[in-house]
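Students often ask why we bother predicting the structure of a whole assembly rather than each chain alone. The short answer is interfaces. A chain on its own may look different once its partners are present, and contacts between molecules only exist in the joint model. In this exercise we take two input lines together and write out one structure for the complete complex. Read the inputs first and try to guess which parts will touch.
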Amino acid sequence: MNPRAENRGAAIDLDTVSKAYGAFKALDGVSLRIEPGEFMTLLGPSGSGKTTTLNVVAGFTDVTSGQLLVGGKSVVGVPAHKRNIGVVFQHYALFPHMTVGRNVAYPLTLRGIAQDERKKRVARALDMVKMGDFAHRYPSELSGGQQQRVALARAIVFDPPLLLMDEPLGALDKKLREWLQLEIKRIHRELGTTFVYVTHDQEEALVLSDRIAVFNRGRIEQVGTGRQLYDEPATLFVGRFIGDSTVLRGEVKSDGTSTALTIAGETVSAPRRLAGEANPVMLLRPEKLAIRRPGQDAGGTNRLSGTIAEAIYLGSGSKYEVKLGDGSIAIVRSPLAGESFSLGEKIELCFDGADAKLLPDDSTADTTLT
Amino acid sequence: MEMKPLTRLILGLVCLLVAIWLVAPTLVVVPMSFNENKSLAFPPQGFSWQWYQNFATNPEWSTSFLNSLKVASLVAVLATVLGTLAAFGLDRMKARPANLLRMLMLTPMVVPGVVLAIGIYAVYLDAQLVGTLTGFVLAHTILALPFVLIAVSANLEVFDRRLETAAASLGAGALTTFRTVTLPLILPGILSGLLFAFATSFDEIVVSLFITNPYLKTLPVQIFSSITRDADPTVAAVGTILLCATTILIGGGMLLLGRERKGRL
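Now the answer. The structure tokens for the assembled complex follow.
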């Protein structure tokens, strides 16, 4: 996954891992293989099991059943302090009674590393997160972003083959978050360590990850690269969670090769059909939809009439929310050069049937969105 | 609300009166300790250091002073260890049973001292603990433990347990985590508990009067028996010394607690 750095990361194998708290299943048979040196993001809404998965790998939580291998060896029952895994927490968790330098030296002291070597490695780790000048400060004297960078240095200073991060940028403002995302990406490249990153922010996941595992209600819905998840979502939940999307529901008519949906009297079709019994819906990305004035010549094979419910100027283009005949909302992104439409205007929505993803309907996909 | 000058004056005077009333006994003791005559009459006559000299040279006084030091030191250590462990246990228990247990452990603070004393005395007679060092240490520890429990619990309440999780992830086992992370952060609470425990034992009189015998007297017991036998102004000298010592101890303890509170903000 990471050809530029030497491969020092550990592989992780989760095999049907479950964690139950009484009747509640926090994890319900999660299986996931993370390759050595990979940047894997666990993405999902709160309560979906992503943090529980991280805690299981870190050793903070016992599994109820299933197998967990780190670097090919089972770590089930191994206490957290013997796993040699770096962890970065959302709340930084720096020791307030130690200076930055002593915080970072802490894991080295525990490993009995001699003072000279310790000093060198602390300095190197602090330089890597650009906090080299702060070794004598106390955590309370640092900003949130600085504290998190120190926490990162502390988690990598002992060269763990695996680094876990639990929403590390969750408490920081947007600008700082975006900058630190790039820093984390750079550090991952330089170290070649396996990174497992937990977030509920899909944009963050897309920026950082080699691959993303999308969690929902204690299960993994899909694992893949950002592009795969965006272009080929396996479930309606994934399609809705990653990026903007429009979901068309209607009366279904399906023959051998195509599927037609009738929405408030208008029929659209896609040249595909869904295997199995489930009720199909169509999922469309905003850039696959176009808005035309009625009667205008349109590209695409399908048309739906609607009214502009919201028009948002984005700088690089415009985003429109279109209210369809059945009351549902479609999201359309149009380039700056295109025509502009005003609020309340009656328009036609056009798309190519080949661009519509057919997915089995899932009523929970809407309600679990945060 | 704006206060009228007269109201302010009256309020000030009342406060002054209350303050004088509160420190009056103390103000009597200190001058009496410098009395020239062998009497406890107030106001004292003349000036001399003889009662301080008597305290230092008379074996009755110096022995009881050393006894008190010995008992209080042992109590401070024992109560601090037990109280800290108890505070930890309660902190990591489910809230409901923990609250019940906590109340139970704080009862020595509310049960009248004389009731405790009778109970302890009855048991000590059988166990032959009257007038023994063990007897004094055990009895005083009962009284001192709640102070440690309160001080350490207050510290544990603001202690961020997620730091222990972080320490574990960095490779620290439970004991190392306690030694390097938890203990340094709750040390102010433990130290102030230690001071309060020492002070509690050092000036304890009610229970001590019951479990004392001629072979083992603590300083407060010696003061009490001396003053009921004859009017020896050495009592006042001892009282002055005690006053200084406890002021320093308790003041130090309060400073530690206060600094901790502020440090957490």
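Check your guess against this: The CA atoms of residues 157 and 206 of chain A lie 27 Å apart.
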